[in-house]
Every structure is written in C-alpha cells, then in structure tokens.
From TrEMBL:
Its EC number is 2.7.7.41. It is an enzyme of class 2 (transferase). This is Phosphatidate cytidylyltransferase. One of its GO terms (biological process) is CDP-diacylglycerol biosynthetic process. InterPro entries: PC_trans. One of its GO terms (cellular component) is plasma membrane. Its main location: membrane. Keywords: Cell membrane, Lipid biosynthesis, Lipid metabolism, Membrane, Nucleotidyltransferase, Phospholipid biosynthesis, Phospholipid metabolism, Transferase, Transmembrane, Transmembrane helix. Belongs to the CDS family. The chain crosses the membrane at residues 6-39, 51-73, 85-105, 117-137, 143-164, 185-206, 212-231. GO terms for molecular function: phosphatidate cytidylyltransferase activity. It comes from Microbulbifer agarilyticus.
C-alpha cells in the first residue's frame, strides 16, 4: 500500500510540474477544467445523485466553467477582467466562511445543506472558483511559482498541524467531523504558514503595506485550507464513505487530494491581486 501511494504521488507531482511549467496557458486552462470535471463526478457522488443525475450535474458544471471563461476572460485566459474575477472569488470566500460554521454545527447543520440538490449547488460554488483561481494565478507573471506557493501554504498548514497536534493536541477542532484534528494543531499550522509568509516577504523585499496584506492573505489561506479539508470530510461522513473515489491508487479520489486547495486557491488569489505580489517577484 505504501509503495502504491509513493508511486502515485511521484507520478502526480511529475504531471503537475510538467503542466505548470511546460503547458501553454490555453491548454493549461482546459486540462485543469478536465480535472475539475473529474472532481465534479466525485462531488455528484458526495451529493448522493444517481448516475443519470451525475451527468446532469457534470453538464451544469461544464456550462458554469464555460460561462466563467466568457465572463472573466472572454476566452482569452491571459487577459482576465480582475474586477469580475473578484466578484466570483468574493462569493467563494463568503461561502467558505459560512461552511466553517456548518462544520462546527455538524450534524445539526445538515438540515441546511443535506438535501442532494443543495449539495450539488455547493459543488458549483466550490469547483468553479477553484478553476478560476488557478487559471488567474497561472496567467500572472511567475504564475507557476505562485500556484506552487499555494501548495506550499497548504502543505505547511498540514505539516505544522500534524506535528503540533500530535505533541500538544487536546482540544478537538471538529469532533463530529474529523476527531483527529485539534485547535492546538490548527494554530501550529498557522504558525508554520506565518513563518513561510514572512520568509517570502523578506526574500522578495516586499514593501511594508504589501507584506502585511500578503501575510494576512497567507494566514487566511491556511485557515481556508483547513476548512476545505473539513468540509469534504463532513460531506463524506454524511454520505457514509471514506474516499471520494478510487481513481488515484493509494490516495482515494481527486477531491481527496484537492479538498484543501479548492478553498485555499480563491482566498490566495484575492490576496495576490490585492497585494500586487507578482510585480515584486
């Protein structure tokens, strides 16, 4: 099992890096849309939709992606309308703030989102802004490195939470959703991301105002990554399944790998646009 996990991880990393650094933006956007559609199939399962309705959901998701591509990019992915992008990203950020309250209120909160149609709609709110965010970041100067940095924030939050939580964790973060996570681990993850953000700010000599915006953005991104993980865990628990699918040997499904990123990407993209980070790299 461990060998299988390692092989899958190495293949995924190689494909991801190749996509980031060697694929033109237009094709990058299309490939990522394909990944999002695969995640959409899994989300339809989390929503307890039957096979026929899953195809309906995929059609709705595909249509939403096309409409977003037209609304924000006019199908020219190198020239986004950032004001329109911020509108969509603001909705996504607001959703994740609400989702954290639902996680804390689970299982009672399921009365608000447990309906399969509600869960399906939530899938659109989760997946479309994630696609929009990664395409915008990739299209910025040094975009591939920005996308990698978001991944680094998610990893730092996860690693910091693991080690601090393992050593000091006593108070459960969301007992009914993910009993292994603690508040101590959560703050440990934030501390790791704070160090990462300050290190990047110093390395690239960001002005004080931009450093503050960037650091706050990184910390909120880390918070969002935790919420993304918890929300998928909540939906899987409600659905009674362990993994979103088995498409990735040893790793479960697409959503099991991307749950944190679906929340982290919109938040970080908002922060990157506000702090004008790319021009300092």
């Amino acid at each position: 099992m461990l060998k299988q996990r390692i092989i899958t991880a190495l293949v995924l990393v190689a494909l991801f890096l190749g996509l980031l650094f060697f694929v033109p933006l237009q094709w990058f956007s299309i490939v990522i849309a394909g990944v999002i559609l695969l995640g959409g199939w899994e989300w339809a399962n989390l929503s307890n939709l039957n096979r026929a309705l899953r195809f309906v959901f995929l059609a709705a998701l595909g249509g939403a992606l096309v409409l977003t591509a037209h609304y924000v990019f006019d199908f020219d992915f190198s020239s986004p309308d950032t004001d329109r992008a911020r509108q969509i990203l603001a909705v996504a950020c607001g959703w994740w703030a609400l989702a954290f309250l639902w996680v804390q209120g689970y299982p009672a909160s399921a009365m608000l989102w447990g309906n399969r149609w509600a869960r399906g709609f939530i899938g659109l709110v989760v997946l479309v802004p994630a696609w929009l965010s990664v395409v915008i970041l990739q299209g910025l100067e040094h975009g591939a490195w920005l996308v990698l940095f978001v991944v680094a924030v998610v990893v730092a939050a996860d690693v910091g939470a693991y080690f601090v939580g393992r050593k000091f964790g006593k108070h459960k973060l969301a007992r009914e959703v993910s009993p292994g996570k603690s508040w101590e681990g959560f703050f440990g993850g934030l501390a790791a991301c704070l160090v990462l953000a300050l290190g990047v700010s110093v390395a690239f000599d960001l002005p004080t105002k931009n450093t503050v915006l960037f650091t706050v953005g990184v910390l909120v991104t880390a918070l969002a990554s935790v919420i993304g993980d918890l929300v998928e865990s909540m939906f899987k628990r409600h659905r009674g399944i362990k993994d979103s699918s088995r498409i990735l040997p040893g790793h479960g499904g697409i959503l099991d790998r991307l749950d944190s990123l679906t929340a982290a990407l919109p938040v970080f993209t908002m922060a990157a646009l506000a702090s004008e980070l790319p021009k300092y790299l």
